[in-house]
Specification:
685 residues; mainly beta; Jelly Rolls; 3 helices
């Protein structure tokens, strides 16, 4: 035998050793030579001629002088040089750059409890890089099961999966949080979770992720499923980014998708939350898509979708603080759709800018409940922050049972917005926009009261409640509103509307001011078209007034009545009881009234009369007290004396009131204006 199985070579015992001074037997010599050849054939040749056929134990010794491997099956030197680089490094150092949870005992088959293995990887990653924290923790594809909470409370730690469809962390820890980032009282920074799915199993409490007392946290490309509560962002945080994430739950009594909060007493705060390409799906179970509460400042949201919750987003000043409340929202491309109560509710806060949005309750949809209220509600919060600085532009609002926008805040701007299917509870039950008593400094521009294809149930495009002030509106279309375009109960001259359109309806209210603008009212049906100014109050002091006034200088206030292409007539008529008319222009028919018989009683519709008869013409003028400011033109065709039947005419030159109006000369004329006591001749020849 050549080797004894332990690597030792022994010559054949029967032929070795030979006896001195004896003849060498040929057969025995040949046996020795053959045995040597066999032994040499089982050795490894340095020139690579030999193939190893079994494992070679090295007994703690090294193979030295290896080159860089070129094939996956090649032995590698302890120090390797990466392709294109210049410095060799050990494989141990290279592998240690990323902590792989499988290296710490984790299994990825959905069994057991992987909390300890993951926590060991987090601890190892934390301690490896000294005072500045750790490194990435790689989680290969698979399903990892947890009965405890993962805690990341050091700097520069990242949990990195192989993708949302590949790496899944399943938590069966009932009421506990799944993952906590940061620790109360100890500041940390730069923690990241990416490319995996976090799901709950039979969860009855706890957050999917809880973040507190840290800085620069990124959660990217993560799917959250079956959670009780989603992401809680607490106090003393700065710069949290949630990007390319989906949060969806169907867990009973689930609370929120994202809750960002801090105290309202100034003891601590939270700053800068960025939401980019985030979807929150509540499946008609989740209470709140987003809650923003207390002294949290600056939310930047883009491509945000919140769907099928009780509330879409609530902004709260729960502490009723006058100083520490939510501030600064800059949101673009928002879709809030499907809510059991309200899509967007702002209880208190300041400086919110939202553009390019679609916000609706989806009232009446299957599972929606059909018991919602407004699509957007902005409360005044007058006892505390006085909600203010709200801008909504380039969007669509509606799908609600009551108002599309119910607003009592100040400094509110609504521009280029169309509403649809508001007042869904009943036709003519609610206005599209309602400005409540605390509304102040509200600007409305380019508003469509109800788009074509909507329910068309809104009573008015805009309703202004008593107490609201400094309201300005222009280019408001109430075409599809049931009763009218504007209902103004403010009794304030600071409430001003212009360039309004209303088909099949009226404009009602108190104290309208159409300044430097046009009011257009038309009716397509076979009925009267007009401006209906009504005062529904009772009492002798109640008045309904349409007043046109001008500025200073050569300005004119004109009430122009036009017929339809010379059709029968256009007139301005009064009810059965007229107590007072304030007007600085003639009122009545557009053509002069010819008088050919005396005496003549001047009618309420007469604006200009011509006299053409012989002798003296006696006129019975309307009561000057009832028509303050009214003008009446009188002209003679023939040589007639024109007088009043009472001493109630003051001559052009002034003096005491008498009865004389025009002398007996053809072509005489005079303009009479009521001063409340008499008729004054203010112009004539």
């Amino acid at each position: 035998m050549s080797f004894n199985g332990s690597g030792n070579y022994s010559p054949p015992a029967s032929s070795f050793p030979e006896v001195a001074d004896t003849l060498i037997d040929a057969n025995r010599y040949d046996a020795v030579i053959t045995d040597l050849a066999t032994g040499l054939s089982n050795t490894i040749c340095k020139d690579g001629q030999t193939t190893v056929t079994a494992n070679i134990p090295m007994n703690s010794n090294k193979i030295t002088g290896l080159g860089n491997p070129s094939n996956l099956t090649d032995a590698a030197q302890f120090g390797v040089t990466a392709t294109g680089s210049t410095t060799a490094r050990t494989l141990a150092a290279r592998f240690a750059e990323v902590a792989n949870v499988l290296d710490y005992g984790a299994v990825n088959d959905g069994t057991g409890d992987q909390t300890a293995a993951f926590q060991a990887a987090i601890t190892a990653a934390t301690s490896a890089s000294g005072s500045y924290g750790g490194k990435s923790i790689f989680i290969p594809s698979g399903n990892y099961r947890f009965t405890g909470t993962l805690t990341i409370n050091k700097d520069f730690i990242s949990l990195v999966g192989e993708g949302k469809q590949c790496t899944t962390l399943t938590f069966v820890n009932t009421t506990a949080d799944c993952i906590t980032i940061g620790t109360a009282g100890v500041a940390s920074r730069d923690q990241h979770i990416t490319d995996l799915t976090i799901t709950g199993s039979s969860k009855t409490g706890g957050n999917a992720i809880k973040i507190l007392n840290t800085f620069q946290v990124n959660i990217e490309r993560v799917t959250f499923e079956s959670f009780f509560a989603g992401i809680e962002i607490g106090t003393n945080n700065n710069s949290v980014t949630i990007r390319d994430c989906t949060l969806a739950t169907s867990v009973a009594s689930s609370t929120y998708g994202i809750w960002w909060h801090a105290p309202g007493d100034g003891t601590s705060r939270s700053d800068v939350l960025t939401l980019d390409n985030v979807v929150i799906e509540g499946n008609w179970i989740l209470a709140d898509g987003i809650i923003w509460e207390g002294m949290c400042s600056t939310m930047v949201a883009s491509h945000l979708r919140v769907l099928h919750c009780t509330y879409g987003m609530r902004v709260l000043n729960t502490a009723s603080s006058g100083s520490y409340y939510p501030q600064f929202l800059n949101a673009f491309d928002l879709e809030f759709e499907g809510f059991k109560t309200t899509a967007l509710k702002i209880n208190g806060g300041a400086e919110f800018k939202i553009s390019d949005f679609d916000i609706n309750n989806l009232s009446g949809a299957v599972s929606q409940g059909n018991a919602d209220t407004h699509a957007i509600e902005i409360l005044g919060d007058t006892a505390a922050s006085f909600t203010r600085g709200i801008q909504l532009s380039n969007g669509r609002i509606g799908g609600c049972r009551t108002n599309g926008l119910n607003c009592g805040a100040r400094d509110v701007q609504l521009a280029n917005v169309k509403f649809y299917s508001c007042s869904g509870s009943a036709s003519n039950a609610a206005a599209t926009i309602r400005l409540t008593s605390t509304a102040l400094q509200v600007l409305l521009a380019n508003i469509l009261g109800d788009e074509y294809g909507g329910l068309g149930f809104s009573s008015y495009a805009v309703q202004v409640d008593a107490g609201a002030t400094q309201i300005r509106g222009t280019n408001i279309d109430g075409d599809r509103c049931v009763t009218g375009c504007i209902l103004d109960n403010s009794a304030s001259e600071t409430v001003q509307f212009g360039a309004l359109t209303q088909v099949d309806g009226t404009i009602e209210g108190v104290g309208y001011n159409f300044q430097n603008s046009n009011l257009y009212v038309q009716r397509t049906q076979n009925a009267a078209s007009g401006i209906n100014v009504r005062n529904l109050s009772a009492g002798a002091s109640a008045a309904a007034r349409l007043q046109l006034s001008t500025g200073t200088g050569n300005a004119f206030a004109l009430l122009s009545l036009h017929d339809n292409a010379a059709a029968p007539y256009a007139d301005l008529t009064f009810g059965s009881v007229v107590t007072k008319v304030n007007s600085g222009l003639p009122m009545g028919t557009t053509n002069p009234t010819g008088i050919s018989a005396t005496p003549y009683v001047v009618l309420i519709t007469d604006s200009y009369v011509t006299v053409n008869l012989g002798g003296v013409c006696t006129l019975t003028l309307p009561s000057a007290a009832n028509f303050i400011g009214r003008q009446l033109g009188i002209r003679t065709i023939s040589a007639n004396t024109v007088i009043s039947n009472a001493n109630n005419v003051i001559p052009l030159a002034g003096g005491a009131a008498g009865s004389a109006i025009l002398a007996a000369t053809a072509g005489k004329w005079a303009i009479l204006v009521s001063d409340g006591g008499n008729w004054q001749i203010v112009a004539g020849n």
